[in-house]
Amino acid sequence: MAESDKKVVSVTMTGFGPFMDIKTNPSWTVVQGAAKVLSENTDLKLVSVQELTVVYADVSKKVKEMHVEFKPDLAIHVGVAKGYANITIESQSVRSGYSIEDVSGCTPPKFEAVCDAVKPPNECITTAIDTKEIHKHCSDKLAGKVGFKLSTDPGLYLCGFCYYTSLYCNTSALFIHIPDEDEPYSIEEMVKSLVLIVEHAVQQIKHKLLH
User: Fold this and answer.
1) pLDDT for 111-160, tens place per residue?
2) Residue 116 falls within a domain, yes or no?
3) Which segment of the chain is annotated as a signal peptide (predicted)?
4) Domain that holds residue 82
5) Residue 10: C-alpha distances to residues 44, 149, 199 (Å)
């Protein structure tokens, strides 16, 4: 067996805490549920599963520290998007434009992510994960049960901010937007969907190690 066949992919996962009228954020509930299922998968190792507060400074600090401490092969971030009808796989994020106040009433310096970068990063960073392949795989697996959508716009609030910060540290990162609970999917359906996404992303990374 090749050494890369035995490679265990290290994975970090985050969800968000309460904000606005969302008292129990389904993103964190789904991340916790998926983490329990994924803990049985021998192709990966969950090295960190964290709840992020909806605060720019906190997200910036925790996401950067997560990458430095755990050096994950894959970082998965999940957020809720009220009104969305599908599980939405985000493929990129931008650095600037974060002018909406967080739950503490603050915005990031210059309305930018990674504002402390010594070398100015690209305005837009795209994930190294093949999101089209993941979209097809998951759509085929859960056809008629759960809908999946590809997106290039995670928004200019904490979700986009979190994703850009993570991509800046390592482009093997994904951000997944889920609808609110039961609008239209149950927590169990969204957990199953997230598990599928993570497992397929892990297989992509393992495949890259073979070539």
Assistant:
1) 999 998 887 789 999 999 999 999 999 999 999 999 999 999 999 999 99
2) no
3) none
4) 9-99+123-209
5) 6, 26, 12
Residue 145 sits in a domain whose CATH number is 3.40.630.20
Q: Output the six-digit token pair for 12.
A: 């970090």
* Token duo for residue 56: 């720019």
Q: What is the pLDDT of residue 23?
A: 87
Q: How does DSSP assign 63-100, residue by residue?
A: HHHHHHHH--SEEEEEEE-TT--SEEEE-EEESB---S
Residue 190 lies in a domain: yes
Task: Report residues of the chain scoring pLDDT below 50.
Answer: 1
Residue 152 CB coordination number (10 Å): 12
The answer to whether residue 111 is domain-embedded is: no
User: Tokens 């093997």 — which residue?
Assistant: 172
Number of domains observed in the structure of the chain? 1
